[in-house]
């Protein structure tokens, strides 16, 4: 078997055009930066390894997606002079150069060499992704760029501290969803009209105004050669067709499946795979689900009225939560909504950041802060800290079984249940409803009482002992406790209060 290193893949015409435009933009820089290095023929493997570490870390400090080393450009005046360096055939210690470098860099980093003809000069460009989760090390040492020097990161504690501060909030949203697009291509891919409508901004009367606003909200960013990038945030929120983007984005589309019975083995009656971005497609998805839900007869104070089986506000808030709190880095999985005869399940990929039983009272946390912030600004979900309140309160108002939140196989699943009488609820459901009722009262500045729990369950006053029995079970299971042990009538609070 041959050990020869395969030649690098040939760039597509678009990739080659972008690479040439990128070289032009890099040459136009007044001097080398902390994330750009020019060389002629120096191909020392150790030097390249240190540069990858230093430039990757420096690119993150400079808020750049990538750093670059370009061979064949003279350092002083940035003139193209060509290079004899051929990374595809270069070796170090009897190993292909790229393989040897990959073995000595931690964490693994997807650097790549690109050979190209630039106006008759042979150039080599090394593209280095910015550090994402921790500083990039070469031979167990992290480096940084300071002027033209490449010292150890640990020798510059102020830069080390700043780098860690930038790594911690680094988010999927800032990544590039599509690159090197013309203005027409951006507007063809993004529903910018929905953006202005949802954010309640007047539509600018010129293209520059449109692009300024999209850029200000980090939906797009400037690329090289006068072109644009669409960020992951822009794509996931406002894509006209998610399938036009990379699979890592396209597979984040919301899926909806309705079943004839109470389990997934029964016949599928409806299926819908979302095509639009979350923001521009949200109302259409919610309306689609609402239209499929059967109605439930509710007896109001004066007359009977038909209303949806599940409260619309609960459905919309749980869908929004699934979109906001999912782990975008889990590939091949997106939010899933499943409608069964007796329940509605909404699942999003990713471990919860707080325990599901503390969703109500814990301070809101999200992996996708920019996504969450913009969706709240567009009023597609409730303000921070009130969403789950609305879900539980609406379930209580309609006297539904208590919603359930579970961590299932590295995913979070929220379940709304169809109406059932108190007599038909399980003991587990009664205790969970009691805990949720006590928690909801507590965060509202009140306390749960036998009377308030009877109202939540629809229990008549002469059957008060039924509510008392649920309270005893919830206490026995450690879900609630007396607000004041010396005064039993003072009510009850959740165990964590």
TrEMBL record:
EC number: 3.6.4.12
One GO MF term attached to the UniProt entry: DNA helicase activity
Keyword terms, alphabetized: ATP-binding, Helicase, Hydrolase, Nucleotide-binding
Keyword Nucleotide-binding: yes
Lineage top rank: taxon: Bacteria
Gene3D superfamilies: 3.30.565.60, Schlafen, AAA domain
InterPro entries: RecG_C_sf, Schlafen_AlbA_2_dom, Schlafen_AlbA_2_dom_sf
Stretches of the chain forming a coiled coil according to its record: none
Oxidoreductase is among the record's keywords: no
Domain Schlafen AlbA-2: 32-150
Protein name: DNA helicase
């Amino acid at each position: 078997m041959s050990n020869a290193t395969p030649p690098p893949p040939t760039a597509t015409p678009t990739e080659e055009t972008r690479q040439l435009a990128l070289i032009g933009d890099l040459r136009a820089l007044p001097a080398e930066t902390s994330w750009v290095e020019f060389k002629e023929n120096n191909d020392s493997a150790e030097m390249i390894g240190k540069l990858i570490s230093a430039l990757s870390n420096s690119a993150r400090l400079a808020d750049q997606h990538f750093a670059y080393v370009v061979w064949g450009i003279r350092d002083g005046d940035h003139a193209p002079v060509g290079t004899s360096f051929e990374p595809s055939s270069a070796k170090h210690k009897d190993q292909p150069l790229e393989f040897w470098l990959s073995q000595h860099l931690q964490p693994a980093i997807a650097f790549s060499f690109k050979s190209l003809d630039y106006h008759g000069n042979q150039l080599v460009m090394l593209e280095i992704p910015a550090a994402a989760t921790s500083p990039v090390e070469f031979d167990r040492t992290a480096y940084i760029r300071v002027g033209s020097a490449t010292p150890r990161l640990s020798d510059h504690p102020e830069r080390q501290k700043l780098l860690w501060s930038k790594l911690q909030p680094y988010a999927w949203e800032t990544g590039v969803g599509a690159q090197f697009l013309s203005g027409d291509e951006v507007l063809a891919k993004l529903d910018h009209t929905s953006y202005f409508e949802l954010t309640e901004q007047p539509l600018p009367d010129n293209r520059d105004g449109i692009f300024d606003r999209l850029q200000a909200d980090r939906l797009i960013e400037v690329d090289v050669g006068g072109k644009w990038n669409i960020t992951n945030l822009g794509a996931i929120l406002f894509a006209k067709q998610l399938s036009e983007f990379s699979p890592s984005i396209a597979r984040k589309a919301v899926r909806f499946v309705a079943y004839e019975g109470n389990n997934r083995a029964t016949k599928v009656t409806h299926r819908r795979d979302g095509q639009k971005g979350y923001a521009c497609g949200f109302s259409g998805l919610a309306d689609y689900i609402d239209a499929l839900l059967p109605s439930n007869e509710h007896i109001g104070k004066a007359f009977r009225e038909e209303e949806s089986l599940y409260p619309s506000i609960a459905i919309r808030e749980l869908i929004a939560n699934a979109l906001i709190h999912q782990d975008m880095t889990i590939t091949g999985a997106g939010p899933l909504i499943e409608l069964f005869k007796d329940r509605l399940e909404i699942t999003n990929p990713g471990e919860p950041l707080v325990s599901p039983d503390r969703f109500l009272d814990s301070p809101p946390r999200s992996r996708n802060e920019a996504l969450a912030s913009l969706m709240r600004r567009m009023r597609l979900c409730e303000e921070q800290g009130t969403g789950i309140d609305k879900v539980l309160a609406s379930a209580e108002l309609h006297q539904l079984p208590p919603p359930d939140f579970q961590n299932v196989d590295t995913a979070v699943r929220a379940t709304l249940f169809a109406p059932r009488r108190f007599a038909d609820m399980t003991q587990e459901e009664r205790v969970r409803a009691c805990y949720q009722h006590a928690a909801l009262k507590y965060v509202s500045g009140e306390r749960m009482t036998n009377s308030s729990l009877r109202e939540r369950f629809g229990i008549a006053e002469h059957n008060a002992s039924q509510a008392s029995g649920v309270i005893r079970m919830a206490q026995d299971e450690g879900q609630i406790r007396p607000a004041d042990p010396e005064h039993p009538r003072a009510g009850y609070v959740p165990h964590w209060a």
